[in-house]
# Entry
Amino acid sequence: MYHEFFAQMRKQLAQLGTWLDAAAAHARANDIDPAELLQLRLAPDQFPFVRQVQISCDTLKLAASRLAGKEAPSHPDTETSLDELHARVRTVLAYLDQFTPHDFADAAHRVISQPRWEGKVMSGADYFREHALPNFYFHLTHSYALLRHRGVPLGKRDYLGPLSLHLP
Amino acid sequence: MYHEFFAQMRKQLAQLGTWLDAAAAHARANDIDPAELLQLRLAPDQFPFVRQVQISCDTLKLAASRLAGKEAPSHPDTETSLDELHARVRTVLAYLDQFTPHDFADAAHRVISQPRWEGKVMSGADYFREHALPNFYFHLTHSYALLRHRGVPLGKRDYLGPLSLHLP
# Structure
């Protein structure tokens, strides 16, 4: 089940890659400086677009590595363009492709800790459901909402990606 | 596992209830007409706040009922105030409280259809992971983002709700 949920989130992170291309095309067509898009924010004390994308990447990368008991690769937050952000997304997609269902065999019972939890811990099952998954969707959706707010033409299909629909 | 994910989403829908109270307090303190908050939107062709909340409610209600093979109660979209929206949230929370893990025993293999899928179907497992859960978080996060955009003081803890942290 973890591997399937990661495949789902991986699919939606790949969709975010396509939003970055749509944002670049929108900027070209409307004489918008792409650097302005990276600094978009919905509230003065919320993270700007560039951080929303970086955190979407990191939330997914760290959730997979923590639940599999692996060391995650470090990705410094140095992106200054939409292309560089797309490269960051591709790096995380490739990292996620290395995981197999077997990697998550012990995920539910791992002990997860984070510095900000001040010595407390969560089980892998609780961490995934209460923290990693909702946070991933929080930052993914904020990335989407920021682009929509600035006029980038995106719709629900761009968010969800292809569905496993079939004839009955 | 379905019952646990629904408990998580129920918890976050209850958090949305607290955001509505924070929005009402913010409106009172800043001489904002609460009716204006209901019509907030981030893009001209996106749904306004009132619809984001209603769809958050419906996505969760319908996902639970479809995956359990039950008939969902009908909730017409007639809310015209923050209080009425909060009442709608409470109604859905109470509805979700009736479900037991046993109700979802056959969830993964149910055949799910929707009018907009034009005769195609999804398995319950695919529907939950690819459609219901991402859509719930999409509309929940848009509800949050709209309030943050209008200055309502909310933070990540208000989004996630209480976490199952414990001492190691």
